[in-house]
Amino acid sequence: MAESHIGGVTLGPLTMTAHAVTRTNHSIPYLLGAARNSRLVGQVESANSGQEFGNFWEEMRDHAVSCVLLADAAIESYANELFGDASRLFPQQFLAGLDLLWDELEKRKSSLEKLDLALTLRNKPKLDRKLPLLKAIHALGRLRNELTHFKPEWSHQQKKQLNVSSDLAGHFQPNQWMQNESIFPRAWVGHSFTVWAVNTTVEFLKHFEAQADLIDRTAWQDFHSRLAP
Questions:
Q1: Which residues of 216-226 are buried (b: 16+ CB within 10 A; e: fewer)?
Q2: Side-chain half-sphere CA neighbours of 54 within 13 A
Q3: pLDDT exceeds 90 at position 108
Q4: How many other CB atoms are there within 10 angstroms of residue 147's CB atom?
Q5: How much is the CA Rg of the chain, to the nearest whole Å?
Q6: Model confidence at 204, in pLDDT bands (50, 70, 90)?
Q7: Residue 2: exposed, middle, or buried by beta-carbon count in 10 A (0-12, 13-18, 19+)?
Q8: How far, in Å, CA of 184 to CA of 174, rounded?
Q9: Residue among 118, 156, 112 at smallest CA distance from 134
Q10: Is 90 exceeded by the pLDDT of residue 11?
Q11: Dist CA 25 CA 76 (whole Å)
């Protein structure tokens, strides 16, 4: 409670109310969820290792799909959070234009394109798509897209599924029950994959922060144990 004074005259008490301003970010929570689902895949796989293929695979698949979706969502959320902090991260002369264009940018730009824009606004080079890490992120994003918009193909007429499998090949070990199948649509499901997916996403975001000169943005050390996939 305070009083207002004008020219030595007391006008009476003023009531001042403080309002806390908060914001929810999802990038780290999504990553933590991806890591949690990865550990669950590992538990199911370990408990059934050496057993004949059975219904346990459905649980593995569901957790693995959740891992993919959450890892991909973490990257998009991270990109959007950057622009939510535009006034602190980007030069003032660009802010008015961003306010005008953001709705269109948000709808039409991919996560990587948004990150490229953030780098440009910070006068840094764009992400190098030729880097192995960027190719890995591309493969993970393509898997997410193909799972979300899945189209079945007969085993003797595979086209897109073989292309997706080619993108994923070499990044992890296919699961032990489908060694003779293409990696996509089923053989990718396993702990080797989910460990790769989580670790690749974390490594990519750290790479971006280093390139953007934002190495203090995320306190990765605070989440180290919880991000173990």
A1: ebbeeeeeeee
A2: 9
A3: no
A4: 17
A5: 23
A6: very high
A7: exposed
A8: 10
A9: 112
A10: no
A11: 11
